[in-house]
Design a protein that fits this description.
Shape of chain A: globular
CATH architecture of the largest domain in chain B: 3-Layer(aba) Sandwich
CATH topology of chain A: Glutaconate Coenzyme A-transferase
Mean pLDDT of chain B: 97
Radius of gyration of chain B: 18 Å
Order of helices and strands of chain A: HHEHEHEHEHEHEEEEHEHEEHHHH
Largest sheet of chain A: 9 strands, mixed
CATH superfamily of chain A: Glutaconate Coenzyme A-transferase
CATH architecture of chain A: 3-Layer(aba) Sandwich
Helix content of chain B: 10-25%
CATH class of chain A: Alpha Beta
Low-confidence stretches of chain A: none
Distance between the termini of chain A: 61 Å
Number of strands of chain B: 14
Helix content of chain A: 25-40%
Strand content of chain B: 15-25%
CATH topology of the largest domain in chain B: Glutaconate Coenzyme A-transferase
Low-confidence stretches of chain B: none
Strand content of chain A: 15-25%
CATH superfamily of the largest domain in chain B: Glutaconate Coenzyme A-transferase
Shape of chain B: globular
Structural class of chain B: alpha/beta
Order of helices and strands of chain B: HEHEEEHEEEEEHEHEEEHEH
Number of domains of chain A: 1
Number of helices of chain A: 13
Strand order of the largest sheet of chain B: 2-1-5-10-11-12-13-14
Mean pLDDT of chain A: 97
Oligomer: heterodimer
Structural class of chain A: alpha/beta
Number of strands of chain A: 12
Radius of gyration of chain A: 20 Å
Largest interface: A-B, 68 and 58 residues
């Protein structure tokens, strides 16, 4: 194995130096103070055009929909975006043409539901800067950042075009001589994560799968939590083993019941498959899609108006019953 | 009327390949149906994992997302994607099921794009998701797919997930874990494996009613046809009953032919 080591030719969109991050985190306030805010305010304050964002959950499961809509509504542009299992979240941001560079592990698809025609249009335009990865590579890029490291060595992606168009670098293990792929730490500027429960300080609990949210929260300079409900600090302290994200990682907390709608929220409500199908259908015709976006995002004041348009509390009860396999 | 359709056949064959006690990572759709059928027939102790973090669920219905609530229903653990992938990287996961827009004779898969310019694709697909990792790190990769010469190509426009790369030893020379790789390809025409040395795709068994010409007409590369190959064993009444009544009563997958 004397052949030359190959580097991926993709671009790294975020700074990899852990000492810069250490310096940042040294100075980030760590006082346990109340951080309640509003969707409008956090998007105004934390989402400057051009920053790099990460979205928690799994594309259409436990996603911060209210934030995503607000980013589109406030017409944020030129964002960097981590396309780590990005399905409906990617679809929303693509609708607003909010990003101009994307780390891709999974985009444009909505899994078994099909492909988003509009997201495809955006990704096929040639206007985006893109770097290719796999899901594990992006998970481990977050993990490297969460560990305060500049990279992690991994054993996937090697030998493929996914590797070629990534920004990974081949290295030789100093212990075994084996070839490995070094993936650079991913430190997003802002992460948005929807959770089941959180106190006013930002101590957050999640039910069901975690995906990468523990590491995303540790890796990101700012973390914004939307939560199904606010709970007391006493409740957090009663079962500290349930805390996924501790308060000092978190910059703001917003209570958004049904906040993952039309996505699934494990144990709470199932995804609204009819509405997701309506999204995909509307995208077939650009004119119709514009009307669709006006109706559901641009001309709505906030997320609650959107919920109302989709059947409000009655619909939420139905989705809860579906989640719990009732009826 | 036919006794079974091609989707039912493919799912049944896939299920038979999952032995009791094995660990398999599946996605939504047909692979999930195959794993459920295996559990309800010969492999009650098959452990199902989903890349989003679900481990060992008792699936009440077919999931629509590999991360939705069904993937942890009465499960053993709900965890992170990194943890699932680390089990794969540590050699604890036997099988994965993958698909793609294109597959070549070495089992390389394309789920990223069609076209000759990555930066301006003719058609953009989702990309790897977890497919590259599962193909790289689990012991045996299985593919279940309809066969035609648009899909079975001489060369993938983009190698998203590794098969045997350029054949021979190239997969391991690239640094991928020893002993891993494509295992079987199950289509509506036959079941294929790989030549032990050249690692080229090779016929293992032909389905009842199919011919070698069917293979030739639906494969964009030269399929190896050994002197001796089997005729695929047909689904039993019992397998079909369980598949139709318990695994997919809504015909979400098996109705898709």
């Amino acid at each position: 194995m004397n052949e030359e080591l190959k580097n991926g030719i993709g671009e790294i969109f975020t700074d990899v130096d852990p000492d810069k991050q250490r310096e940042y985190f040294r100075n980030k306030p760590k006082k346990m103070i109340p951080k309640l805010s509003t969707i409008k305010d956090v998007v105004e304050k934390y989402v400057q055009d051009g920053i790099y964002i990460a979205i928690g959950g799994f594309g259409g499961v436990r996603i911060p929909t209210a934030i995503l809509h607000e980013i589109v509504r406030q017409k944020k542009k030129n964002l960097g975006f981590s396309g780590h299992v990005a399905t409906h979240d990617c679809q929303i941001l693509a609708a607003g043409e909010c990003f101009d560079r994307v780390d891709i592990a999974y985009v444009v698809g909505l899994e078994a539901r099909g492909l988003s025609r509009n997201a495809r249009r955006v990704f096929e335009s040639g206007k985006l800067k893109v770097t290719e990865w796999s899901n594990a590579a992006l998970s481990w890029r977050y993990k490297a950042a969460a560990m305060g490291l500049p990279f992690l060595p991994i054993r996937s992606m090697l030998g493929t075009d996914t590797y070629k168009y990534s920004a990974a670098k081949e290295i030789i293990c100093p212990f075994t001589g084996k070839k490995l792929a070094a993936v650079p730490a991913l430190y997003p500027d802002v992460a948005f994560i929807h959770v089941h429960r959180c106190d006013v300080y930002g101590n957050a609990q999640v039910d069901g799968i975690i995906v990468a949210d523990d590491d995303i929260a540790k890796a990101s300079k700012h973390v914004i939590i939307t939560t199904e409900k606010i709970i007391s600090n006493d409740e957090i302290r009663r079962e500290p083993n349930r805390t996924l994200i501790p308060y000092w990682l978190v910059d703001a907390v917003i209570e958004v019941p049904f906040g993952s709608y039309p996505g699934n929220m494990p144990g709470e409500y199932f995804s609204d498959e009819e509405h997701l199908a309506e999204w995909l259908q509307a995208e077939q015709d650009p004119e119709k899609f514009k009307e669709f976006l006006d109706k559901y995002i641009y001309n709505t004041k906030d997320f609650y108006e959107y919920l109302q348009l989709n059947g409000g509390i009655e619909k939420m009860i139905k989705l809860r019953q579906k989640e719990l396999l009732i009826g | 009327m036919e006794k079974y359709n091609s989707m039912e056949l493919m799912i049944t064959i896939a299920a038979r390949n999952l032995e009791d006690g094995a660990v398999v990572v599946v996605g939504t759709g047909a692979p999930c149906a195959a794993a459920m059928l295996a559990q309800m027939t010969k492999s009650p102790n098959l452990t199902i994992m989903f890349e989003a973090g679900g481990i060992g669920p008792i699936l009440p219905t077919m999931p629509i997302s590999v991360g939705d609530s069904r993937t942890t229903h009465k499960g053993l653990k709900a965890t992170t994607m990194a943890e699932i992938m680390e089990y794969c990287q540590a050699g604890m996961v036997d099988y994965c099921f993958l698909g793609g827009a294109q597959i070549d004779k070495y089992g390389n898969l394309n789920s990223t794009m069609i076209g000759d310019n990555y930066y301006k694709p003719k058609t953009r697909f989702p990309g790897s998701g977890g497919a590259n990792d599962l193909a790289s790190l689990t012991w045996r990769t299985m593919v279940m797919t309809p066969q035609n010469n648009k899909r079975f190509v001489e060369k993938c426009d983009f190698v998203t997930s590794p098969g045997y790369l350029n054949g021979g030893n190239s997969r391991y020379d690239a640094g991928l874990p020893l002993g891993t790789g494509p295992y079987k390809v199950i289509t509506d025409i036959g079941v294929y494996g790989y030549h032990p040395e050249t690692k080229q795709m090779m016929l293992l068994s032909l389905h009842v009613g199919k011919t070698l010409d069917d293979i030739k007409n639906n494969t964009g590369f030269e399929m190896l046809i050994p002197e001796k190959y089997d005729i695929t064993e047909e689904p039993t009444d019992e397998e079909l009953r369980i598949l139709r009544e318990k695994v997919d009563p809504m015909r979400l997958i098996i109705g898709r032919v």
